[in-house]
Amino acid sequence: MSIAEELYLEALADYVLQDHSQNKMPDPGLTERFSSVSVTDIVELHRVSTRRIAEGKPEDQALRIYDASLRFLTDFLAHCNKSVYAAPSSLVLLKNKYENVLQHMDSGIALFNESGRLTFINMNMARLIGLPRKALIGFRLIDVMRNRMVPRKIRKSMLHLYREMVDYRTPYHEITTGQGRHLLVTVTYENELDGDVLISVKDVTEYKRIEQAAYQNDKLAILGKISAAIAHEIRNPLTSIRGFVQFLKPELTRMGKHEYADIILDEIDRANSIIHEFLNSSKPTAPLKKPVLVHAFIKDVMLLFESDALLHQCRIEVGPIDQTLTVAVDLKQVKQVLMNIVKNAVEAVAQSRGPEGRIQILAVHEAPWIKITVSDNGDGMDADTASRLFDPFFTTKEAGTGLGLSVSYRIIKNHGGKIDVRSRPAQGTTFSICLPE
Ligand code: ADP
Ligand code: MG
Q: Is any atom of ligand 1 closer than 6 Å to the C-beta of 83?
């Protein structure tokens, strides 16, 4: 860049980045430097400079920069004693370029002038409203809201937004679409924008997802702490009970009741091992991974459910599964996950299907995952349940703990994997566990 070009960039940046009410005329020293430069070259320099200034700025600011930069250019050319009309085509080209940039932004943008008429709208915004751009330009917001061609739902949310943002002047508003996407609507008002009102709509579904995942992790960390504390507290009295029973055992044997002592000791050991399992799985430590055969460990888990399935008269079908399929996991932990999910499936079908109940377990290699799916034809769940099912202590069952899935979620996360759920009310539910291959 030559010195003159650098000075131009500096003056332009000065002009467009400051409050527009204080826009000052270009420095005469600068205009003099450009007296022998052609209008076309100035326009080209202007184009490059504006782009540099607007690069990486949020779209409402970029729009303001483009807008102000056109004013600067007109002023500048006038001060150089050059007619804007010397190069009308390059000016039109320039304007088209800015419009192009705005057209292709991933946010929806609409600009209303001081009398409330739509002067600019990009493709994304027109798509959101559901009408072609040509049918919208020149109309007032109120006309668009009354237009019967715009779907009713959209008109309703526009009216709601209008009240919130124009009547109460809240600058940000969030809406959720019928498809479950989150949109952030921002309004920039007249006093900042020469009497115009700029509305921009950004899809923030991904940010929301990340935010929720962070929240979920927080809750799981708390669950881990609480459960570790409770389990620890239970283990202490169990240890002393065990000690006293052992101490009393000769006495019981003498009374011919030694089997009572054995049962008590066995049961205490079982309780202890449950606590141990639970502490293990809820601890945020890295799992001890070893390669295991997928079909073999699924079979192990199935054996545990045989009597349960028989009792509820439902059928559990496994496979076909590639007999060579292996995955590196902490076997104890992942078995527990599969048990939690199959147990839920059995409970779901037992409740609604009786003998018609079907559960299917499959495992496939779907790079980069080993994917295990458990499908049931139970009652499924509504959207509210689906969104809270991994929350600790969330349960819809009378005797439920609401811990199965939150513990499973944590275990699979610690393995670097993920759990997905697809469920349709009255049709059934499919859980998929994805583990890194
Ligand atoms: P619990 O089984 O103790 O209720 P979970 O964490 O295992 O706790 O499950 C939480 C909730 O998720 C259940 O109460 C149930 O509402 C729902 N759920 C889980 N699996 C299924 C399924 N296969 N079909 C329908 N609902 C399910
Ligand atoms: Mg459960």
A: no
Give the end of a domain, one of 72, 103, 134: 103
Model pLDDT for residues 183-219, shown as the tens digit of each residue:
888 888 766 666 778 888 888 888 888 877 777 777 7
Tell which residue, 165, 184, 174, has the closest CA to residue 112: 165
Residue 222, domain extent: 208-282
Contact 346, 374 (CB under 8 A): no
Residues 20 and 153 placed together within one structural domain of the fold: no
What residues are paired with 188 via a beta bridge? 198
pLDDT in tens, 364-407: 999 899 999 999 999 999 988 998 899 877 889 887 778 789 88
Task: Check: CB of residue 124 under 8 Å from CB of residue 85.
Answer: no
Contact 266, 245 (CB under 8 A): no
**Measured between alpha carbons, how far is residue 303 from residues 270, 299, 310, 331 in Å?**
19, 6, 11, 16
- Kindly state the DSSP code that residue 104 receives in the 8-state scheme: T
Angle (CA) 149 153 157, round 5° = 110
C-alpha span between 291 and 293 (Å, rounded) = 7
Pocket test for ligand 1, best of 227, 343, 395, 410 (most atoms within 8 A of CB): 395
Question: How crowded is residue 396: how many other Cβ atoms within 10 Å of its Cβ?
Answer: 12
DSSP symbols for 29-88: HHHHHTTTS-HHHHHHHHHHHHHHHHTT--HHHHHHHHHHHHHHHHHHHHHTT--GGGSH
Is 428 touching ligand 1 by the criterion CB < 6 Å? no
For residues 370 and 364, give the distance between their C-alpha atoms in angstroms, rounded to a whole number.
6
DSSP assignment of 313-325 equals: T-EEEE----TT-
pTM of the model: 0.48
Domain shared by 322 and 420, yes or no: yes
Do 322 and 408 reside in the same domain of the chain? yes
**Ramachandran angles phi, psi of 377, nearest 5°:** -105, 35
CA–CA separation, 177 and 201 (whole Å): 12
Q: Are 227 and 219 in contact (CB under 8 A)?
A: no
Q: Given ligand 1 and candidates 281, 340, 379, 389, which is best to mutate, with the most ligand atoms within 8 Å of its CB?
A: 389
